[in-house]
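Recall that a protein's primary structure is simply its ordered list of amino acids. Everything else, from secondary elements to tertiary packing, is in principle encoded there. The following example makes that idea concrete.
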Amino acid sequence: MQHVFIKGKAQAPTFLLLHGTGGNEQDLLGLGRELDPDANLLGVRGQELEQGMPRFFKRLGMGVFDLDNLSLRTKELAAFIDEAANEYGFDRDNVIAIGYSNGANIAANLFFEVGKTVKGAILHHAMIPREDVTLSDLTGLNVWIGAGENDPMVPADNTKGLANYLMKHGANVETYWHQHGHQLTMDEVHAAKAWYEKMA
């Protein structure tokens, strides 16, 4: 996978940074640094293209995912984390996924299809990735979800549904709401940082 790795301080967590549609492996580096200046940063580029724009998995329409492709790409991502940990020498058990939109959706699907493959997640504007699988035990997993009350792409009920799915299977979930749409706001970033520092 095309990616960038920036080494942080010893014992610091590794942030798996997953961009939104049309982004790249550099997009969330600044967000990662804002959340924790000491963290390792692993930015990954999605391998699918939609009208020339990188994505992590294919979709059939707005909010309609190609589930076979989603499954394939999710398992590839999980394997890539293992490979990157071996290559760069970071603690595989101290990885936190941070995703926005399409990147947040594939991060969420890690929990739906693979299980507790990362220590926790910060999901900006994620939605339920699929409803045709049975989740494994997620006890001890910490997840923060940022959402906009007026998000035209992710209805509020979908965000609540994602949180409920994860909590039902043992995850600790905190949801932050703002009155804006699908954009990532600084208030949302600051709320995620406060949560992260509380969890650290």
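The chain has five helices and eleven strands. Helices lie at 29-35, 67-88, 102-114, 156-168, 186-199.
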